[in-house]
Design brief:
single chain, alpha/beta, Rossmann fold, 2 domains, 5-stranded parallel β-sheet, binds 1,4-dihydronicotinamide adenine dinucleotide
């Protein structure tokens, strides 16, 4: 099929072109994201292939349909950036990669937690300047801490197993508790209990109208003083302005985020020579106990391989009339 790949970076081109050798689709790469400004580029295409910060809203969908695009192939798991109602109305299928490497995201979440705790990023810089002092590098044992996990799907489940391996007490919250985890002895609690009892909270639920700003001033008030929050899921789960207030009062002891509410204006780009107009992220960066990465949780060789394979096979399956990994409303 004729595929327009939007928001294409060097690594997308490398992995998609390599794996397409067995699928033989025609790939055209666009650096720009898909949105109302770029949708006019899709006239010749059957398929658009998009990522987390493309905006596939009702207006974009209507124009995609007009241009003859039949399918939106997400090369990610989350689909909060697609207007599914509009896609259904215009008979455009939406497919995704439901689980490409949950381990990649979990390992990154763990890296954020341990970097914040043991301050290895600061130690690295110190040693390069021949500063061998330990002052201000003090951490804590993660062993024995209570860790709350919100969302126990593909990623949250693995996070639960791994953090338990560190000797933590694990509390889980999900609107659909996993029988598998319960059988293994994991404990599900209410969101309120999880917030009250956790020393560390890691977010692994999707962004939707029920989870938007699940971390806000109200929920933060119920948490322990110095709670550590890790978010590798979606930026909109945290009300960033409320988090900044909680960092100022030391309610939040450390914040590790791989995702950010306004990330589409910043992430995946080199802005080192640009003026940053986002004062919220500018403030966040000033806190010594905040660690930000730019949505790289998925970024491993294994995950990129799986993403390219599943996306291309989703498209081939659609062509054969057998839709796989469809996102249903
Ligand atoms: P999943 O769909 O397997 O699991 C999500 C879980 O959240 C489900 O068990 C679901 O029941 C639960 N959930 C839904 N609404 C909830 C609510 N209101 N409260 C509590 N739990 C709720 O998704 P998966 O694969 O585990 O991914 C989780 C999220 O991680 C994705 O939605 C995506 O936003 C993010 N992600 C981030 C990546 C990164 O590179 N940082 C890469 C891949 C995914």
């Amino acid at each position: 099929m004729n595929i327009a790949v939007f928001s294409a970076k060097s690594y997308d081109k490398e992995y998609f072109s390599k794996h397409n050798k067995t699928y033989n689709h025609t790939l055209t790469y666009f650096d720009a994201p898909l949105d109302t400004k770029t949708v006019s580029l899709t006239k010749e295409f059957d398929v658009v292939c998009v990522f987390v910060n493309d905006t596939i809203d009702a207006k974009t969908i209507a124009e995609l349909a007009e241009n003859g695009v039949q399918i939106v192939a997400l090369r990610c798991a989350g689909f909060n950036n697609v207007d599914l109602e509009a896609a259904k109305k215009h008979n455009i299928r939406v497919v995704r990669v439901p689980a490409y490497s949950p381990h990649a995201v979990v390992e990154h979440a763990i890296a954020l937690l341990f970097t914040l705790n043991r301050k290895t990023h600061k130690a690295y810089n110190r040693i390069r300047e021949n500063n061998y002092s330990l002052e201000k590098l003090i951490g804590y044992d993660v062993y024995g801490k209570t860790v709350g996990i919100i969302g126990t799907g593909n990623i949250g489940k693995i996070f639960a197993e791994i953090i338990k391996g560190f000797g933590c007490r694990v509390l889980l919250y999900d609107i659909y508790p996993s029988e598998e985890l319960q059988e293994k002895g994991f404990e599900y609690v209410s969101l309120e209990t999880l917030c009250e009892e956790s020393d560390i909270i890691s977010l692994h639920c999707p962004l939707n109208k029920n989870t938007k700003h699940i971390i806000n001033t109200k929920s933060l008030k119920t948490m322990k003083q110095g709670v550590v929050i890790i978010n590798t899921s979606r930026g909109g789960l945290i009300n960033t302005k409320d988090a900044i207030k909680a960092l100022k009062t030391k309610k939040i002891g450390a914040l590790g985020i791989d995702v950010y509410e306004q990330e589409e204006n910043l992430f995946f780009r080199d802005l080192s020579e640009s003026i940053i107009y986002d004062d919220v992220i500018a403030r966040l960066i000033t806190f010594p106990n905040v660690l930000i990465t730019s949505h790289q949780g998925f970024f491993t060789h294994d995950a990129l391989t799986e993403i390219a394979e599943t996306t291309l096979s989703n498209i081939s399956n659609f062509e054969k009339g057998n839709v796989t990994n469809q996102v249903e409303i």
